[in-house]
Amino acid sequence: MEQLTKREEEVMNKFWEKGEATVKEIIATYPEPRPSRTAISTFVKFLVDKGFLGHKPAGNNGFIYYPIIEREEYCGNNLKNVVQRYFNNSIRGVISTLVRDRKMSDDEVRELINQVIEGNRQE
């Protein structure tokens, strides 16, 4: 799965929140000053080309676009890439870093341990 740029991801998040939408409808979700139709259309084209969005005709209004890739799938893929690239494919390394840097509270660590134990019991 290809990585998205920050702006592509921003536009894709709009589709994940809205579902099916036209370019005009996506533009309307932005606060003023809104991005231009050309800018959003360009990002939508990139998202179609990368396989993130599909489209269908919408009469004289152009196309209705819809997500093909689910947010959870994209986020999971990104997380796998981070774990592989920065933590030598070690979940333990990720958790150790989060605990060491105090990004996880003691309660969150206990909850994670309980989830691991429960997951092992179900296998």
UniProtKB/TrEMBL annotation:
The protein's superkingdom reads Bacteria
- Keyword annotations: DNA-binding, Transcription, Transcription regulation
- What is the protein name given in its UniProt record? BlaI/MecI/CopY family transcriptional regulator
Keyword DNA-binding among record annotations = yes
- Which family is this sequence assigned to? Belongs to the BlaI transcriptional regulatory family.
Question: One of this protein's GO BP terms?
Answer: negative regulation of DNA-templated transcription
Query: Under the GO molecular function aspect, what terms does this record hold?
Result: DNA binding
Q: Which InterPro entries match?
A: BlaI_family, WH-like_DNA-bd_sf, WH_DNA-bd_sf
